[in-house]
Structure formats: C-alpha cells, structure tokens
C-alpha cells in the first residue's frame, strides 16, 4: 500500500489555492474602502446643512453664558436653530446676552430660530446643594427635554503652588470640578429618559505646558 506524505504546508495551502481569488480581492477592496471612508468621515467636518439638520430645535444648556467662550457658544448654537438655556450667576448679564440673541435672530430672514425663546437661569456652580432644584426648574421649562450640556463655566488662577492659598485650590475644585459633576449628574436623568444627549467639557491645553502656574478646569 502506497503511503502519501503530505507536508503541513501542503495541508494549509491546498484549501487556499482552491479559494476563489476574485472573492479575496473583493474582500480586500471592501476593507480598504471601509478604512478610507472611516478616515474621511472622522476628519472631514459635517456640512452646514448637516449641522443644522442635526442640531435644529435641540435644547442646549450652557454654563458661563454671560461672557467669553460661553457667550460665543450661545451664538454658535443659535446659528443652527438650537434653543439656548443660558446659565451663570449674573442674571443681568445673561439677560443682555439673551437680548443680543433675540436681536440676532430678527436679522435672519424666515429663520426657524425666530420662533425659539431662549431661557435664562441663575446657577452658581459652587452651590452644589441647590443644583438639583435649578435643574428641575430648567427641565420643567423645557418639557423635560435637555439635549446638550456645555460645561463651560469655570474660574482660573495664576500663581505659584507655594504662594497659592489652599482655599483658592478648594474654590477652583468646587467650581471647576465638583460643581460640574453635580450639574452633570442632575441633568443626566433627563437625557437618559430620552436615550440621547451630549455633554461638552471645556478645558485647556495650557495645563500640559505649565501645570505649576496655571489652575483651571
Ligand atoms: N479663555 C481662555 O483662554 C481659556 C483657556 C483655557 C480654558 N478656558 C476655560 O474655558 C471656560 C470659559 O473661559 P472664558 O475665558 O470664557 O472665561 P470667562 O469669560 O471668565 O467666563 C467664565 C464664565 O464662568 C461663569 N462662572 C464663574 N464662576 C461661576 C460659578 N461659580 N457658577 C456659575 N458660573 C460661573 C461666569 O459667569 P458669572 O460671573 O455670571 O457667574 C462666566 O460667564 C472656563 O472653564 C475656562 O477655564 C478658557
């Protein structure tokens, strides 16, 4: 009886050689297309129309809306048809920003934004105990629908670690960290109940450069 010896390589190579090479090439091509598409969609920003489509009528809570980046965020979200909930401690300044948003909306022809009324709420991030009450009020005014939270409000301090008093560290941590955690926790159930929501955090790349002199969120 003849004994045929088959090497390990032959065992492995035989089924592969029978496989239709066209299918292998097609699979490879599909893989390359998927990789390129993923890369393209992850680096190319969405079009203005797409942003408007996605953000239209979304309720956006912005902390620190009375000035700086928070104020700029109000105008940026308004542009895409969002309803803005402006929060910070200075009600007078928040009302000024709200008025500017309304004036801005009037300039746009036939815009959906004209119909949206933005809201103003006094919110002190250092008052973590009262956070739940403020969030309840916000939610009631928005039919319990909160889509986006922009955790922007924050305080900073410049000084050396040695000369900076501990109460400054404590205040910074309360406003920039615990206050934001408390607000996020209080708001999350309203996002969870709709199974959707986005939370934006504003920080700084500066800390990686000079962590010894720069204290902020
Ligand atoms: N500007 C920058 O170069 C820079 C760089 C890196 C990071 N950031 C961060 O970006 C965020 C905004 O910076 P910004 O330059 O726009 O600052 P900003 O103009 O000083 O505005 C800070 C905002 O936070 C609010 N705020 C302060 N303490 C608060 C508290 N206890 N409770 C509620 N709101 C409070 C203020 O409103 P009221 O006074 O009305 O409460 C104000 O609207 C901050 O978190 C900051 O750390 C800014």
Key descriptive features of the protein:
binds NADP nicotinamide-adenine-dinucleotide phosphate, single chain, 12% strand, 52% helix, Rossmann fold, 8 helices, 217 residues, alpha/beta, 2 domains, two-stranded antiparallel ribbon
Short description:
The protein has eight helices and seven strands, in the order H-H-H-E-H-E-H-E-H-E-E-H-E-H-E. With 217 residues, the chain is α/β, with parallel strands linked by helices. The protein is globular.
Description:
By secondary structure, this protein is an alpha/beta fold. The chain has two domains: 36 residues; 168 residues, Rossmann fold (3-Layer(aba) Sandwich), CATH 3.40.50.720. 52% of the residues lie in helices and 12% in strands. The chain is built from eight helices and seven strands; from the N terminus they run H-H-H-E-H-E-H-E-H-E-E-H-E-H-E. The strands form two sheets. Strands 3-2-1-4-6 form a five-stranded parallel β-sheet, with helices on both faces. Helix 6 packs parallel to helix 7. The longest helix has 27 residues. The radius of gyration is 27 Å and the shape is globular. The structure holds NADP nicotinamide-adenine-dinucleotide phosphate.
Q: In percent, how helical is the residue content?
A: 40-55%
CATH topology of the largest domain: Rossmann fold
Number of structurally distinct domains: 2
Describe the strand arrangement of the main beta sheet, using strand numbers. Answer: 3-2-1-4-6
Q: What sort of overall outline do the alpha carbons produce when their principal axes are compared?
A: globular
Distinct small molecules bound, one entry per kind: NADP nicotinamide-adenine-dinucleotide phosphate
* Main sheet properties: 5 strands, parallel
How many angstroms does the end-to-end distance come to?
Answer: 82 Å
Helix and strand composition category: alpha/beta
Number of strands: 7
How many helical elements? 8
Average pLDDT, rounded to a whole number, is 86
Low-confidence stretches: none
Could you say what the CATH architecture of the largest domain is? Answer: 3-Layer(aba) Sandwich
Query: Which percent range describes the beta-strand content?
Result: 5-15%
What is the CATH superfamily of the largest domain?
A: NAD(P)-binding Rossmann-like Domain
N-to-C order of helices and strands: HHHEHEHEHEEHEHE
